[in-house]
Amino acid sequence: MAIDPACCLSGAATLIMSLHLSSSVNAGSYRPDIDGLRALAVLAVVLFHIGVPGFGGGFVGVDIFFVISGFLISGLLRQELLSQGRIDFKAFYARRFRRLGPALLLMVCVVLLLSYFVLLPDDQNKLGREIRGVALLSANLHFLQHAFDYFNSASDLTVMLHTWSLAVEEQYYLAWPFILWGLYRLSGRQPDKVARSLPPLLWLIFAASLAYCLWLSYHETPRAFYLMPTRAWEFAAGALLAITPLPACWKPHAALAGGVGLLLLLGSVLGLNEAMVFPGVIVLLPVLGSVLFLLGGQLNADNPVSRLAARRPWTDIGILSYGFYLWHWPLLALGRYWGLGERSLPRDLLLGGVLALLLAWLSYRYVEQPIRQKKLRAFSTTKATLRSGFAMIVGMWLLGNVAMFLLPRAPWSGHQALLQAKGDAMVMHGNCAMPRDGLPLSPVAQCVEGQRNGPVRLLAWGDSHTDHLMPLYATLAQQQHIAILRRVYHGCPPLPDVTPVGEGKLRTWCTNFSRAVRDELPQLKQQGVSGVLMNVRWNGYAALNKPGENSIAVLAAGQNGLPDSVWDKQVGVAPLDRATSLAVLQQALQRNAAYLQQLGLKLVLVLPEPEMQRSPPECVIRLGAAACNVSRQQAEAERADVVAMLRQVASQAPNVRIWDGFDHFCDATTCYASQNGHIRYQDKNHITASMARSMAADFKPVFDWALQPLAKP
User: Fold this and answer.
1) Domains defined along the chain, listed by start
2) Is residue 86 within 8 Å of residue 250, measured between CB atoms?
3) Are 458 and 531 in contact (CB under 8 A)?
4) What is the reported pTM?
């Protein structure tokens, strides 16, 4: 039955209107318009994550939250410092624990339970690492290292990705009170001096952080997005408003300030999109809009814009905004994971919209409010709250370890068939590493396959597609009683003079690794290596625009240099477009083939295997084999320009031969994800070890050719 998205939204609004919510803030200081602003922020983020059309800039909701936090926290700390001459750090952090900790821990526990039935063991392990990052207040740093691009569709399945913003806020909470206290001490504990010194300090933080944010946005975009120092200026913007005395003559302009602020916020949510460089200059729009909106309410809470924001259901959604934000993303990610990584607007509205809002209300009603009102003994005093808070941190860290180490060892019985298919891969011997910077290469003895104690006669050089053919190589090597040296770095083309570009950064580790292998070639030739086997996902380095893919292109790097910064370049736009990338790959591959010929080495280029639209193990088991196949015409079209490029290289190089296993996967009309009950793929583009071995007889002639010395011209 079709589900009407508008009906879902209407139902959610009706649900909110039926709830009776009240803020925990003291009535005398409560500003309902701020809850209305929170509602705008969380709805923008949630609708953007769900994929509702028209909300392309909804990600700026997080920036709105940062400004609100800076405004509220700085105002409270300044008031406490100037009125009492001190900051009660214990009480401050106890309030933060009560506000953030219990709901977060509840969400983690529920997600961990659901993940046992939804996620496969490897992904449970990843989830555990994410949870440990959450517990250690460093989720943003974890995702900077492992997720890179927040906006890539592959991030849809990263269950705790949304906690990066919580980590940024928590790091702000750790630093800002101590900075204020240090300023107070340096001012001789004199409130007047503090009042005079605080604005210049905030302006300095604002200017330095903004400059750093803008510079990184156009040089290393992910760092600008995830790091707290590049977001500190947004907190500082809210703080400056909180501590700045407002002239009485500004009061008549409250509606103008609030109205312009609201227009800037709506324009940002509706007008921006994820293809733009972000944070970048455009982040100034939602931050300025937030400050102006808050300024309007600060000048006159009775202005029309603030009155509108202070009405239901906006205030109710704002009160639930923390829980709504906590719940919506894991539900979306788990739903999409179960749905083979695909988005579905009706399903996502139900999970990330209606169900998340309901869970937010339940959490608020039965967990957050009783704890914030100190009705539970464990949170009734500051001392008890701090003990409970640290216990929550330790408990969450332990839950992360449960997900990492225990759940994968006792997988759900419903996953057995899936695990069997995904486990059909070659287990590599030794400890052949892929170091973070691409260097140093592991010793040869740790990277040999086939007849491991035999002479090393061939080099298998490439990316993860070289690995998925390794069972084929190893089978033939054992028949010939020889060893094959494996030099593989996943996500890296085996070309010493190009550098892949993706996720806002240069993949210099790829270039480092390939150059180290190139430098090793003369010695390998002297030791008896006669040829190179190269199976590479060339499509993956040519600005491939495919759902769930990290879009990567390549730049020419020269034999020893590296490209300049990519701050002004976007994948998909020249020079990082597909045509240019394919040309760069072809030229680099021609140079590589010529160098191999100069050394007396042969090169076997394996043409790309057909790729599937859905991951076959999950697809076949959940939807049936027929739903997972692709047409031969489509598969041929996807690889056509790559095949033409590889054939052109081979036609000009006497030491190069082509091998194509395409017909092993396809008949005249269809390429099969599974046949005769045997699943052929581990995921969308990596084949199983059984499938690789099944092609050994067909590959043997070109394998034997690579073992023979290269004839001199």
Assistant:
1) 5-411 (no CATH), 426-612+641-666+686-707 (3.40.50.1110)
2) no
3) yes
4) 0.88
